[in-house]
Amino acid sequence: MLKIVVCVSGGGTNLQAILDALDEGKITNTQILGVLSNNPGAGALDRARSRGIPGIVMSPKEYGDREAFNEAFTAKMCELAPDLVVLAGFLVKIPPQMVSRFGDRIVNIHPSLIPAFCGVGYYGLKVHEKVLERGAKVTGATVHFVNDGMDEGPIISQKAVAVEEDDTPQTLQRRVMEQAEWILLPRAIDDIANGRIEVAGGRVVRK
Question: What is the structure's pLDDT at 102?
């Protein structure tokens, strides 16, 4: 049984996709230990609590400096001891010490086709704003393992989504969620839970 902690900063639509996939049997051999957020007002916490899943709040603002938060955050994750940490719209950089402790056991969903529109400053709606500014015709989403870089870890899966002529950042964000994010993230969790993928030579390979 794969035990996971889901980290979310906002409303939790990707968390909901995971919950729905669990209900529908699209994710198997998996248990959610808790949902952690840096935002006490995150809708994701309400989604978790309504399902009887513990909600945990840890905000960098509660600590004297970022290093103190990083140490506390890493300690909390070690205390929870998940087999996999799932970043589902988590707007906090994962501390190097946590990456070191968990190795290839942290996954992230990013709303673009990495290496396009990723890295520092590319998160949430900002990604879709930049896609439209550049006039890109195709965008999408990527699930990847997390390393010390920003959106640089081994790619698990990607899915392309068309950009429409009349798109706004909001309409494009919604289409990427519906057509890519909510499909890719549950599938990646199920693949990991059932031993279908591994990291070898810095790349993800299917067994």
Answer: 95
**CA 3 to chain centroid:** 15
Give the CA distances from residue 184 to residues 15, 17, 49, 101, 197, in Å, rounded to whole numbers and listed in that order.
12, 10, 24, 25, 14
Catalytic residues: 110
The answer to whether 188 touches 159, Cβ cutoff 8 Å, is: no
Joined tokens for residue 81: 């001891």
Residue ranges, the chain, pLDDT below 70: none
As a dihedral over the C-alpha atoms of residue 193, residue 139, residue 162, residue 202, rounded to 10 degrees, the angle is: -40
| Residue 136 backbone dihedrals phi, psi, to 5 degrees | -65, 145
Backbone angles phi, psi at 180, to 5 degrees: -135, -60
Q: Which two tokens stand for residue 85?
A: 């940490």
CB 107 within 8 A of CB 14: no
Q: Which residue(s) pair with 31 in the sheet? A: 3
Q: Residue 174 corresponds to which tokens in the numbers above?
A: 């919604």
CB 138 within 8 A of CB 113: yes
3-class secondary structure, 163: coil
CA 87/CA 161 separation, integer angstroms: 21
Q: Which long-range contacts link 157-163 to residues 24+ away (Cβ below 8 Å)?
A: 157/184, 157/187, 157/188, 158/113, 158/114, 158/184, 159/183, 159/184, 160/113, 162/137, 162/138, 163/131, 163/132, 163/136, 163/137, 163/138, 163/139
pLDDT in tens, 26-38: 999 999 999 999 9
